[in-house]
Amino acid sequence: MTVNRTAGRYGPPESSPLTGYVVVDLSSGIAGAYCAKLLADAGARVVAAEPPEGNPLRGRSVSGAILENGADGALFQFLAGGAHSVVADPAVAADRELLDRLLTNADAVVWSPGPGAAGDPGYSPAALRERHPHLVVTAITPFGLDGPWTGRPATEFTLQAWSGGIVGLGRGAPDRAPLYIGGDAGEWFAGAYAAAALLTARQRALTTATGELVDLSMLETQILGLSYYPVSFYETVNRPFRTRRRLSRPGVATAADGLIAVGCGTAQQWFDLCVMVGHPEWIEEDPTPAITERTNEKAAEIAEWFAAHKVDEIRELATAFRIPNSPVADGANVTEFDQHLARDFFTVNPRGGFVQPGPPFRTLPALLREPTPAPRLGEHTEHYRSAGFPGRPARTGIATSNPLPFRGLRVLDMTTFWAGPSCTHFLAMQGAEVIHVESAQRPDGTRLIAGVPIDEDRWWEKSGIFTGLNTGKRGITVDFRTAAGREILRRLVASCEVIVENYTPRVIEQIGLDWETVRRLRPDAVMVRMPGFGIDGPWRDNPAFAYVIEDASGLTARTGYPDQNPVEPYSLGDPNAGVHALIALLLALEHRRRTGAGVLVEAAMVDAALNITAEQVIEYSAYGALLERTGNRGPHAAPQNLYRAAGLDEFGRPDNWVALAVTTDEQWAALVEILEQPVWAADPGLRTVAGRRKRHDEIDVHLASWFADREVGEIVSRLWAAGIPVAEVLQPHRQGEIPQLHHRNFFEAVPHPVNPSARHSTVPARFSAGPGSYHRSPAPLLGQDNHAVLTELGYSADEISVLERAEVVGGTPRF
């Protein structure tokens, strides 16, 4: 493997935006560890308070690698780099005193259920807030800290089922069970959201001089990451976004010499694919079916063409046609992709010597600190017992209330589709003034995927996906292909503290808004660029939809059945990029607050995805283990699978599924009781996880028979009551029926001037300091704020009329 240790991505430690910020880590899973890592990389001092036996992550290897002599696992070494380790047993008085001293001198806590202090009622999130009101306490739990589902057993697998994400975008072939996304992707995504939520609370604490409780629900992060605003879509057009599973074509295809991933996200890309595979006549056929339907209709002919051509030849042609494509990345090959080599992305762990991903974003100036070794268990215990604490700086000001932490922040939002708008939407929901820029000639792509006939009045306003991503924003249209349009953009840049864009790099350069120009217009601006593959390298201008990012990072390789080609998740690549860009933006704002200087952020989508698939590269480099797809099975539970239940679904099909994940021997014993102790389950060899994993096929046959005779509701209620992780594989437009989400007000009804009132998702954490609601206004109509914004920029009424007549601005699509 060819790697570079630093690649010029890291700055001096004193430049890190969180220098002096102290975080106590009381978590024990990937979500909490990844949250803490993102903070540590930005300069925070992270002190992990571990139980005497250590954080369970120290012993983790999903490939089953043997860790000799109590050695720490490679994944732990990646996640805990730069942290301090303190062993503290809350049952010991001296350790409780140490913990309280740590907490008194900290700024924030990351907490999740688990062993050690996190399992002691005296260190619950509520107790921490009561004893240490200055702390920002971020709790990461499956369902949230209160509500009817709080405390119920859940796993990554069952949360994906409850979220609707397993079936949300039609993943998998209709003749088999739907598929979950492998690799604990939801855990990593929750960790990123936890970091963004904690930094948001920190932003508020800078003005209120108080801490707060941040109550993050992993179910809610799964909904935002694995489904495409299905409730707002359904309630806007009165039908689900998608009602059946299908394989995306070409998707992951078999070429003459291996696998290649190629996808069509737009009509133009479908037209180009038709030409590429030698069937231009398909373009003239009935355009009514959706692209996915048309590609499936032609699946046999497309597959035949791919099988006759080599991978490199297909990639060269697809790139020339600007059709999204990528090799199918896995832990063995991804470090050799020419894009990652050109950008020196991968680095070497300073303690373990294995290969690991570089940071999920880059900045100018460099704000992240260079990787440092993970601590040995208890390495810093005596230091914190004996040494004096540096003391917390006195808080200035009087404690106040600030339910909207980004009020007063003006953001120019030059983003489209999902990744970019999801980043800026969070800011809008937290009080920022976000000005979303489209053009009448090229509206935001999410306006165009609602399936509304173009002869219907104002059809472009009827996308629940667009409204789901853009509430609370202002909207203007600018044709920036014109000189007058580019002048509008320059005036907007000068008026905004933050600029976010997610075009391919050449677009920004063509319209003259590169970083040097932005700095001249606004020296203290934070500019966030979100290209698919980065602003340099051989792939920099390649189009990048969610699925091609998943292909290029390893998310696809872990998803699917082992006897078939991998299946693209078709979801997480976008929102994962959005939340990592948000984290980078918040860190850049902190640098701006401290120094008054602007920051360029390069938040490449693929870099963010390579971080949440880090375990693949790490396991392969450290242990030679290639992690592959396993259908709906997983390394943490046995049995784990989807089982078909009795009855027909709401579409009249025998397609009701239940997700089951037995993670402990005690849960297995409880399941056997519910099964009424059948002879096959009494075998002593099934009493251990290892034994059950060896005979998973046999278990599946028996469980499938038992599930098939019972309704979903009966199965879920009986197993959940017995403490077994279980879930209905929910259709995503039914998310609003989940009582836990109703209790937490996760969905809010939003009126709209064109569409019926529809419920819209909010943010996946409840902030004790507010706000009580998030959607202050509906998503903007096309160009609705043209006059107001242009007037603010100094344009007269006559000048605006000239711009309208020239179609530089407008409120009706101009195709």
From TrEMBL:
One of its GO terms (molecular function) is CoA-transferase activity. The keyword Oxidoreductase does not apply. Gene3D superfamilies: Crotonobetainyl-coa:carnitine coa-transferase, domain 1, formyl-coa transferase, domain 3. Residues 375-396, 758-778 are annotated as: Disordered. Signal peptide: none annotated. Keywords: Transferase. It comes from the Bacteria. This is CoA transferase. The lineage of its organism: Bacteria, Bacillati, Actinomycetota, Actinomycetes, Mycobacteriales.
